[in-house]
Amino acid sequence: MTEHESKYREEIEWRDLLRQPKKLFGYSYLYVLIILVIIGLLYLVNLNTIGKNTIAPTAQDTTVMIKDLPLQTPRVIPPIDVMRTGVASAEAIAKGKELYKTNCVSCHGDNGAGDGAAAAMLNPKPRNFTSSAGWKNGTKVSQMYKTIDAGIPGSGMTSFNFLLPADRFAIIHYIRTLLPGQPNDSQDELKQLDAAFHLSEGVNISGQIPVKKAMTIVVKESVPENIAIQHAIQKFDGDSSESAQLLRSVIGDETKAFTVLLYQEQTMKPFDECMTGIAESPISSGFKPEITRLSIERWNDLYRYTHRILQEEHLK
């Protein structure tokens, strides 16, 4: 083939590719397919890694007990003279020693070294009152008073706010004798302590009961009402009177509706207030929206009917 023929042939082949470009890219589909297969295989191989959660899951420790409110009887805390009670005396130290034996020995030990009988089960260990190292809030009277009142979160040191303020001061004065040379409070610091806890004014402490106990009482108190509601519903379900049929056509949730009606019965709400309350929010009251389209006469029929049923059951 001459040079002229070879050049001419190349020109023809180039023109043929321009007319049919798929010849140029004919094998590219195969390449793309191979690449996609490779990517798919890589994805499957690394699927476990991709699916891992990069944030460490948090789970509630079911071994940790949720503390309920402590039982607390109502009482009056008498006022004290902080400027006098906040200063150690032989009488206060002697009283504090007896209170220490009752309230503190089990954890802190007889000599205050943090080696009481319960210390082995506590982490962190109880405070060693004979050592000056590691005091969380300080060793001044005002600082220790705050510790006794609030406790130390994350440790076995709970609040001792059930003790009278004078008794707290007495314990503090005794504990401070276990490590002589601790700093004393200034008058300003004692005044600030007085202002923070209203010690010179006295405090009325309201009574409180644990939440679980309160819930039990509420359930017990509501049992008669629940029984009355269930009896009223049973009577209503077995009633085929015109009034019962009317109520049945507009009631959505029997239990909710009769609960609302019983509440209105107990609070002795007049007819117009009952009607307005239900009409403003029929669904949340246990009724269908259709009840808002009833005439006054129909409303009166329902009111008298439900009033009669609830009265009969509630007075049993």
Total number of beta strands: 2
Estimated helix fraction: 55-70%
Tell me, rounded to a whole number, the average pLDDT: 79
Placed side by side, the strands forming the largest sheet appear as 1-2
Task: Explain what the structure shows.
By secondary structure, the chain is mostly helical. It has 3 domains: 3-51; 75-205, Cytochrome c-like domain (Cytochrome Bc1 Complex, Chain D, domain 2, Orthogonal Bundle); 211-314, no CATH class. It has helices spanning 3-19, 28-45, 47-51, 82-85, 90-103, 105-108, 141-150, 165-177, 187-197, 211-237, 242-250, 254-266, 271-280, 296-314, and strands at 75-77, 203-205. A two-stranded antiparallel sheet has the order 1-2. The relative contact order is 0.08.
For this entry, give a set of tags.
316 residues, mainly alpha, Cytochrome Bc1 Complex, Chain D, domain 2, two-stranded antiparallel ribbon, 14 helices, 2 strands
Can you summarize this structure?
This protein has 3 domains: 3-51; 75-205, Cytochrome Bc1 Complex, Chain D, domain 2 (Orthogonal Bundle); 211-314, no CATH class. The chain contains 14 helices and 2 strands.
